Amino acid sequence: MTGRAYALSDGNSFYCSCERVFDARLARVPVIVLSNNDGCAIARTTEAKALGIRMGEPFFKIRDMCRVQGVRVYSSNYALYGDMSARVNEVYRRFSPRIEVYSIDESFLDLSDLRVADRVPLARDMRETVHAWTGIPTCVGIGATKTLAKLANHVAKKVPELGGVCDLTDPVQYDHWIVRIPPGDIWGIGPANARKLEALGCESVADVRDLDTRAARKAMTVVGERLVQELRGVACLDLEEVAPSRKGCAVTRSFSDRVEDLATMEQAVAAHATRLGEKLRAGGLATDHVTVFFHTSEHDRDRPQRSVSTVVTLPEASNDTLVLVKAATFGVRKVWRDGYRYSKAGIVTTDLVPLAASQRAFPGLGQLDREHGAALMQALDACNRRFGRGAVVPGAAGFAPKREWSTKFEMRSPRYTTRVDEIPVVLAA
């Protein structure tokens, strides 16, 4: 093992924990959070898991059981979860100067500068501080590599006796656990690779570690070779403290009701293009083409099926909402066909470029008025920052109260931390 050490801190049932922070009645009560349009369970507390609710289980199948068992059910509240994630990461930064925010509920921290004896005490202190300051329970795994830190975090969550912290930089702990964990629990090992490792005779993480790197590479490409090295304590993956620039961007949504007319589809895709423009401007990026798609649902088996997409090319790279909306609605009209009940639509773009460095079109060949467009977009974004997203939108995108196709969040909790009108109110007795 090297002197390098990474910690992975992970919020326990993060979406559910965020709901519990603002409602003390949810403690020790089964709670689940649903995906868009209240489709399926994407977060479950321990109590909900004990009732047999599986990840991704459609809500319509468990609705009656949830009512009988007293399961508290919530629609996704991404504004709340994103803000709580930012607060948790602010606490992490007090414990390590180098952090990679890996996902909304997971972050890697570099603990290499700490003495070995100080790593577990710091992890315990960090867990207690995060819980005290944000209310979010976490588990921390420590390893010589990111893969081992992820593995240690898995152990910390599965073994309550460890008190939420597992340190695989400790040789005793390392030797104890890697012979007890199946290969399928390794970070990044899906069902297909798990079967390949089984065919190679691997029954535990220790068996994967001891594979010949050439055999691992042959079975799982260079990814397999790196995996073996990481399990041996040789770091192949460094922290990404600065998130890499986006290569692509997509805004897709399932409709709350089927869409059967052109005007509604145009409005929905225009709304997606509006959101796409916001995302691109936030990163200083632009695109010179967009792909528009929409399709029916395979669940409507008694109705005709159709899935269609088209690419619309712009004269030059842009992140102007009005330009993107015009392109998106053109794409819809190009491939629209009556007689179908569409269930989902989206707009996707790839090969993004920094707007400032993008090539301009020749004058007279569709060159866009960037300067005036940029000023308008700045004003648009400023209004939406001040008054809330969607306060000002292009007319083609429609307005939220009248968007019958829009994603439904019928059981969403208040956005306690980001909306003044939804701040919790305490009434005096």
Supply the number of helical segments.
Answer: 13
CATH class of the largest domain: Alpha Beta
Helix and strand composition category: alpha+beta
Strand content: 15-25%
Family: Belongs to the DNA polymerase type-Y family.
Protein name: DNA-directed DNA polymerase
InterPro entries: DNA/RNA_pol_sf, DNA_pol_Y-fam_little_finger, DNA_polymerase-Y, DUF4113, Rev_trsase/Diguanyl_cyclase, UmuC
EC number: 2.7.7.7
How does this model look, in words?
With 429 residues, the protein is of the alpha+beta class. It is built from 13 helices and 13 strands. The chain has three domains: 134 residues, 5' to 3' exonuclease, C-terminal subdomain (DNA polymerase, domain 1), CATH 1.10.150; 66 residues, MutS, DNA mismatch repair protein, domain I, CATH 3.40.1170; 151 residues, Dna Ligase, domain 1, CATH 3.30.1490. The strands form three sheets. It has a five-stranded mixed beta sheet with strand order 5-6-1-7-8. Helix 11 runs antiparallel to helix 12. The chain is globular, with a radius of gyration of 25 Å. The model has no long low-confidence stretch (mean pLDDT 91). This is DNA-directed DNA polymerase. Monomer. Its cofactor is Mg(2+). It comes from Methylorubrum aminovorans.
